[in-house]
């Protein structure tokens, strides 16, 4: 072959190799940059989604209270409704109004002022509201309608929950009463969740009007955002969902930093090689000198490529036609924890996580056999045990005839993206936990209704027995009469607790009377005497010598004492403590306040958990629901008192709560 042609082919091959190397590095850099940007968008979108779901579900929760109340009081008046609704609305900002629609016609509204135009409106005759109303009635579940434009002005979401009255006979069908509705202002909701003017620096759009998910209309943001390869997140709520699209403010097409330097350097190097080849082709007599310069340029090129590989944020590798590793970059070694020498041949296989190894080895073998490209996500396991997620990709090198001469590729670290996906999954699990607990009120109301009847029968039978035994006048029956009286008293007390439970579920005001605090504490302690004895835990009462009177609901205050004593017993049981001691102390702090303290000598509460111990759904016990202390705080604060916890210097912790005192003249006045 002509020597001149050989030189041209040689330098052409060198130029193509340089271009290929630059292209691989550039492609890997862009892929890594886009993965990093997408993981950031995913993490920020997950945060916005969680905030929006929480804000919406907190507001929809009020429908349950309305349904429970109307189901037991179907003849509720407007004034009664306003008292109930005012208490609910005060607990949450962003509620436009609470409404009832008897027979699907708006019949009760709070606040009525400013919403008079909605009174008497037939929802089934409104084209905008009818689909959501019909779906709510058919499914007998809460349905979120809208966003829709209100007659009184503004854009709002409306939560519709059907109300069915329990039949008199079990065989009869439930009677449809109407609807409970929560009207939620859209803009404050989106602003609270950070969708509007948030710090996430994202372009956002939401679709799924009337809660129909991805098939619904876009009601926030630009609809074309869903067509631009966005990050998608489903926003879930009872019986429906929305879909949110997110993208960077600058779009997805931005280039990674340093891209133009890499491309310019590669093109400049190819240009220099081309010029050198042209000069050598035109001046054969200077062949030796040109060869020397080409050798130097080739060495510099190799050094430069190795430098680029070293600086690249992705791990590069090169394999022969059989798939055996010939070279790995320094960054690949940092990611995998293996040296370049250990990776050669088939040594790189040992860096793949055992659970992914078979899949990756088979996939790589198939790509080598067919000469196709290879892409896969898998884990690398450091010799020390650390696990790294990577995205591996490769292409086949081919000569002019199309024959495979080797394989080049890269491994991109995607651990940050995988962590973001795991965090998003955790948020979904937490939300599902909150939604499951939101049905607790309805379950408690049903249990209270079912148990109240047999307890009433116990009272009637025991009192009848007392009367009959009393008529016989037998002295030997006095002990039996005393036992039956005790049974009757316990049944009456249990029925009273159940009635108070139903009242608590319906959000009714507690019945407060003057009660002797020491008596309430003693009554609560009866429940734990046997349990404490079996667990070898000493119960110690340090009650005030003087009677302390408080204006309170005795059942609720007893519930607080039960919760605190129960926590203390669980802290002492099964922890290997040799001398478990639980003390309950009452004392007047001054003329206005009395304090109840429950102290144990267990392990105490971790310092990190102390600020959150009274938060709803927070617990330090495996399997705990995290509602007992939150409910206790609500009861104490509703009585005008305060509750807190401290760790003891000698071990264990002390829960203390205060209540206003009604002693002496104050008691008489009450």
Structure characterization notes:
Helix content is 46%, strand content 23%. It has 4 domains: 61-192, 2-Layer Sandwich (Beta-Lactamase); 314-438, PAS domain (Beta-Lactamase); 440-505, Signal transduction histidine kinase, dimerisation/phosphotransfer (DHp) domain (Helix Hairpins, Orthogonal Bundle); 513-669, Histidine kinase-like ATPase, C-terminal domain (Heat Shock Protein 90), CATH 3.30.565.10. It has helices at 3-60, 62-72, 78-89, 130-139, 186-192, 259-282, 287-311, 330-336, 340-343, 354-370, 415-437, 440-472, 478-505, 517-525, 529-534, 554-572, 628-638, 664-669, and strands spanning 95-102, 105-110, 143-149, 155-165, 175-185, 202-207, 218-220, 231-237, 240-248, 315-319, 325-328, 374-381, 387-398, 404-413, 513-516, 537-542, 549-552, 580-588, 593-600, 642-647, 653-660. The model is unreliable at 431-443 and 664-670 (pLDDT under 50). β18 (580-588) and β19 form a beta hairpin. The chain is α+β, with helices and mostly antiparallel strands and 670 residues long. The strands form 5 sheets. It has a 5-stranded antiparallel sheet, with helices on both faces. It has a 5-stranded antiparallel sheet with strand order 11-10-14-13-12, with helices on both faces.
């Amino acid at each position: 072959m002509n020597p001149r042609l050989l030189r041209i082919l040689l330098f052409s091959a060198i130029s193509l190799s340089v271009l290929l190397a630059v292209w691989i590095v550039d492609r890997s850099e862009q892929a890594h940059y886009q993965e990093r940007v997408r993981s950031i968008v995913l993490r920020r979108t997950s945060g916005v989604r969680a905030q929006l779901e929480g804000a919406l579900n907190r507001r929809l929760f009020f429908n349950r209270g309305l349904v429970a109340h109307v189901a037991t009081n179907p003849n509720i008046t407007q004034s009664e409704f306003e008292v109930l609704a005012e208490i609910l609305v005060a607990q949450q900002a962003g509620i436009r109004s609470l409404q009832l629609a008897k027979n699907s016609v708006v019949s009760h509204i709070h606040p009525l002022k400013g919403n008079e135009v909605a009174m008497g409106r037939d929802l089934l005759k409104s084209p905008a509201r009818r689909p959501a109303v019909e779906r709510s009635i058919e499914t007998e579940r809460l349905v979120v309608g809208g966003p829709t434009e209100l007659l009184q002005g503004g854009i709002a979401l409306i939560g519709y929950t059907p109300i069915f009255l329990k039949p008199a006979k079990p065989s009869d069908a439930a009677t449809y009463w109407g609807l409970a509705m929560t009207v939620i202002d859209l803009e404050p909701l989106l602003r609270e969740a950070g969708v509007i003017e948030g710090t996430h620096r994202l372009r956002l759009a939401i679709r799924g009007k009337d809660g129909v998910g991805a098939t619904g209309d876009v009601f926030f943001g630009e609809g074309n955002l869903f067509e631009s390869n966005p990050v998608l997140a489903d926003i879930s709520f009872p019986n429906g969902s929305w879909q949110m699209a997110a993208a960077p403010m600058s779009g997805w097409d931005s280039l990674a930093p340093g891209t133009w330097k890499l491309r310019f350097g590669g093109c400049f190097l190819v240009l220099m090689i081309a010029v050198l080849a042209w000069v050598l082709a035109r001046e054969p007599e200077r062949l030796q000198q040109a060869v020397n310069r080409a050798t130097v340029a080739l060495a510099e090129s190799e050094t430069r490529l190795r430098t680029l590989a070293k600086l690249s944020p992705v791990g590069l590798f090169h394999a022969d036609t059989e798939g055996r590793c010939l070279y790995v970059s320094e960054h690949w070694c940092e990611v995998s924890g293996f040296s370049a020498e250990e990776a050669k041949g088939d040594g790189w296989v040992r860096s793949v996580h055992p659970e992914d190894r078979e899949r990756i080895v088979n996939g790589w073998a198939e790509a080598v056999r067919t000469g196709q490209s290879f892409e896969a996500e898998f884990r690398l396991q450091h010799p020390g045990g650390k696990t790294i997620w990577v995205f591996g990709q490769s292409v086949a090198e081919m000569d002019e005839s199309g024959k495979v001469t080797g394989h080049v590729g890269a491994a991109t670290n995607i651990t940050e993206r995988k962590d973001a996906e795991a965090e998003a999954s955790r948020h979904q699990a937490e939300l599902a936990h909150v939604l499951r607990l939101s049905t607790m009120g309805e379950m408690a109301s049903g249990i209270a209704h079912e148990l109240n009847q047999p307890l009433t029968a116990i009272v009637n039978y025991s009192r009848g027995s007392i009367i009959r035994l009393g008529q016989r006048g037998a002295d030997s029956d006095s002990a039996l009469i005393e036992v039956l009286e005790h049974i009757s008293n316990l049944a009456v007390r249990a029925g009273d607790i159940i009635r108070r439970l139903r009242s608590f579920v319906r959000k009714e005001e507690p019945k407060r009377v003057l009660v002797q605090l020491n008596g309430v504490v003693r009554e609560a302690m009866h429940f734990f005497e046997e349990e404490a004895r079996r667990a070898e835990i000493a119960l110690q009462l340090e009650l005030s010598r003087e009677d302390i009177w408080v204006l309170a609901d005795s059942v609720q205050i007893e519930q607080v004492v039960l919760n605190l004593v129960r926590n203390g017993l669980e802290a002492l049981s099964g922890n290997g403590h040799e001398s478990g001691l639980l003390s309950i102390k009452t004392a007047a702090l001054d003329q206005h306040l009395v304090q109840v303290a429950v102290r144990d000598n267990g392990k105490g509460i971790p310092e990190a958990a102390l600020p959150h111990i009274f938060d709803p759904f927070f617990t330090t016990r495996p399997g705990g629901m995290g509602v007992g202390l939150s409910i206790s705080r609500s009861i104490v604060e509703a009585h005008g008192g305060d509750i807190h916890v401290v760790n003891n210097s000698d071990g264990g912790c002390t829960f203390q709560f205060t209540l206003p005192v009604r002693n002496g003249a104050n008691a008489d006045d009450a």
